[in-house]
Sequence to fold (366 residues):
Amino acid sequence: MTTTATQDPEGHPGPGGRPGSPGRTPAHPGPAPRKHTPPGAALAVLPHVLRGALAWTDAHRADFALPDDVLDPRTQVNATLKPLGELAQLCSTVRAATAPGTPEHEVAGALVAYAWEQVEAGDLLLELLRLEPFAAYPYEIYAAFAGYGLRHEGFEALARPLTATRAWAHTEQHANRQLGLVNSERRVGVVTHTDAGGVLSRTWLGGLSEPWMFEGPSGYALTHTVFHLTDWGRMPDRVPEKIDGYLRTWLPAWADGCLESGQWDLTGELLAVAASLPGPAPVELLDAVWPVLADVQHASGCVPETGVPARDPAPGPGEAPDPYPFVDCYHSTLVTAFAAALSLRSLRQPGTQPGETAPGREGHIP
Fold:
């Protein structure tokens, strides 16, 4: 099975469009950042943003369905298994971050269950592992389900000897991708093939790179370093103090630049990073950015990856088609739901609102 070339290590768009597109976005593609927003601006829009993004995703679940030829070596992973794996990963985090019994919690759980059905309760992933024992992606997709509590005994029985090989430990890949593999091993419950701290130090973020060197590919590498380090926002205290301080200092500037250039997908990922930091939420940043992204969100609930946002109203049954092709908005819409759920959790934690006491910082895992 082959994969398509991408502009950044995680397969997400670089500045200007979908993977592989070197173009630039228009100078003023959408709403300008709001420099002075009232306290509580994020909380005022987040519930609606979260519900809308999940509703759009649920209405388009059939677009995540795997084709009959998914095991054919010529089938593109980026167009089939990658979206489904993202659906499982991000919706499992949304479910973990929302309260049981709420519509958001139930919809997110239903979408994870749908993704599990698509991989035939793990049987399909086992077959992929047999066909490509040298590939990491079947294991990483499986880990998204395993972290949610969905396991497949046969898959894990085969994966154990494969992940103990020298080849597995020495697969050549970007440092943030290797950190993702370490987190997948943690989720499955096996001994990690290398030390996470050593890998983190080799990432763009772990090196505390000069902040003015931030651009599309390094931005996505940075966000995914945090996602893998924190198990997709579930363990904020894994973020070392120096990185926490660095991110709190520079996230506002980076988010502002993404808003000005219409990089909505990367904006959503930066918001998810902000909501994955230990301690009190960066309220000022969330209040400034979320209303802008909420304004970009289409009435149907979807969010474009880049560019000028559509302004037409949500179509009714049998009326006009979606404002964007599925491939141009599914990831950014999922990311918006993911970031919204984490932001709501972060803003509602003790110590975020005036007069509340923040809990002490727990020991982090570097």
Q: What stands out?
A: The two ends are 35 Å apart (CA to CA).
